[in-house]
Amino acid sequence: MVTQITKGIKISVETSFEGTFFKNQHINFAFGYKITIENQGKDTVQLTARHWQIFDSLNDIEVVDGEGVIGKKPVLKPGETHTYSSGCLLISPIGSMRGYYDMVNFTSTRKFRVYIPTFKLYAPFALN
């Protein structure tokens, strides 16, 4: 697990290798990740958007931007957490992801960015 704290918001990431399958006559490597967002600050905040950079050792960097996470824009009061699971496909058994969440502080109405630590994606057999 990797963790990082930005402006009182703790991001924890756990990853898993989900297997391989063929798509469009190519082998793909499926990875899952579970992210926990914990508000360790004193103000209520809301996650409004996400930005990902997905690195695939055999492909170009893929950038993904969007609103919220898995269709939600969670509001976190002090001490609350939000956990969600998602995944990605790589054409390589080795890669990584990093990014950030755009958030808003309900007390000050200020927008701020929370960084997601870089986490590795790898099939266990690829590192032998």
Automatic annotation (TrEMBL):
PROSITE patterns the record matches: APAG
Domain ApaG: 3-128
BP GO annotations: error-free translesion synthesis
SUPFAM superfamilies xrefs: ApaG-like
Designated name of the protein: ApaG domain-containing protein
Natural source organism: Zhouia amylolytica AD3
